Amino acid sequence: MADLREYPRTAEGSNISKVVVDRDLCIAAVSCIAVAGDVWELDDENKVVAKDANAADDATLIASAEACPTKAILLFDNSGAQIFPK
Ligand code: SF4
Q1: For the chain, which residues make up each domain, given as ranges?
Q2: Per-residue b/e over 17-49, b at no fewer than 16 CB within 10 Å?
Q3: Which atom number of ligand 1 is nearest to the Cα of residue 33?
Q4: Whose C-alpha lies nearest to ligand 1, atom 4?
Q5: Which of 1, 39, 51, 58 is the most exposed place for a label (fewest CB within 10 A)?
Q6: CA 23 – CA 81 distance, rounded (Å)
């Protein structure tokens, strides 16, 4: 079973309603943190967690997911459809 962590997103005007991290894929490359340091941090297992899923706009959040070399960050829109990775 994949080790998935889900974070609801409630930012007003956002088209991203849920952020999911696949912890099995996270290799602590920290590219996501470089892009969106207000959203992401590493926990004591060196896996990324969202400290505040609402702390960046949609474009920044998408850029942080795109920056991940292992595509460990999944994004879902308001209809529940996965928008990244496609
Ligand atoms: S960029 Fe990907 S692998 Fe690196 S810390 Fe973020 S989620 Fe983990």
Answers
A1: 4-12+26-77
A2: bbbbbbbebbeeebbbbebbeebbeeeeeebbb
A3: 6
A4: 29
A5: 1
A6: 20
φ and ψ at residue 70, rounded to 5 degrees: -110, 5
- Which numbered atom of ligand 1 lies nearest the CA of 29? 4
Taking only the tens of pLDDT, the chain with its 86 residues reads 899 999 999 999 999 999 999 999 999 999 999 999 999 999 999 999 999 999 999 999 999 999 999 999 999 999 999 999 99
Kindly state the tokens that stand for 84.
């990244």
Ligand 1: lining residues by beta carbon, under 6 Å: 26-32, 48, 67-68, 70, 72-73
Q: CA 35, CA 68: separation in Å to the nearest integer?
A: 10
Per the confidence metrics, is the pTM higher than 0.90? yes
Q: Does domain 4-12+26-77 correspond to CATH entry 3.30.70.20?
A: yes
